[in-house]
Amino acid sequence: MRVAIPSHDYKEMESEISDNLGNAEVFVILDIRDGKVRNISSLKSLYAKHGQPGDIPHYLKVNEIKALIVKSINPKMIPAFRRNGITVYTCEDNTVEESVNKLLKDELTLASVNPKRRINEESIHKYPYRGVPGKDRTGYHNYGDR
C-alpha cells in the first residue's frame, strides 16, 4: 500500500505534517508491505497554493497512492478522494514517523464527511440583512430616482 502524507520539507520520516493539504509543497510517500515501511520517497506537489479542488486527489491517484494521512481536511474533499480510490485518515501527530507508527498499529481514524457535532452545540442561524427602511447597507438613503 502506498501512503501519502503532506509536508513542507524533504526530511522524510522527520518531516513535519502540513496543517493544510492545499498548501503542502511535498508529499512524503511510503510503501508499506507486511506491516513494515519498505520504501520512502518524496513527491513534489504540483498544486501547492494554486489548484482546483479535484486536482490533488487525481494527482495522488496517478501516482498510485491508496491512503492519505492529514491533520485536517475539508469534509467536502473526502468524496473526491474516495472516487479516486484513496482512503483518508486524520491524525493529531506532528511528524510523519509518529503518524506512520499509528497507521501500522491501526490507531488512526478515518476522515468523515459528517464529523460528529457536540451534543450541547446549538446551531447558529444568521438572518439575511434586511436593512433599515429607506437606507441601503452603507447607511445612505436609497430613494432611487426621486
Strands, count: 6
- From the alpha carbons, calculate the radius of gyration and give it in angstroms: 22 Å
Percentage of β-strand residues = 15-25%
Strand order of the largest sheet: 3-2-1-4-5-6
Q: How many angstroms does the end-to-end distance come to? A: 71 Å
Q: If you consult CATH, what is the topology?
A: Nucleotidyltransferase, domain 5
Describe the structure using short key phrases.
single chain, 146 residues, alpha/beta, Nucleotidyltransferase, domain 5, 6-stranded mixed sheet, 23% strand
What is the compact description of this entry?
The protein contains 3 helices and 6 strands. The protein has 146 residues and is of the alpha/beta class.
Can you offer a commentary on this structure?
16% of the residues lie in helices and 23% in strands. The radius of gyration is 22 Å and the shape is globular. It has a single domain, classed as 2-Layer Sandwich (Nucleotidyltransferase, domain 5), CATH 3.30.420. Strand 4, helix 2 and strand 5 form a beta-alpha-beta unit. About 5% of the residues have low confidence. It has 146 residues and is an alpha/beta fold. 24% of the residues are buried. Strands 3-2-1-4-5-6 form a 6-stranded mixed beta sheet.
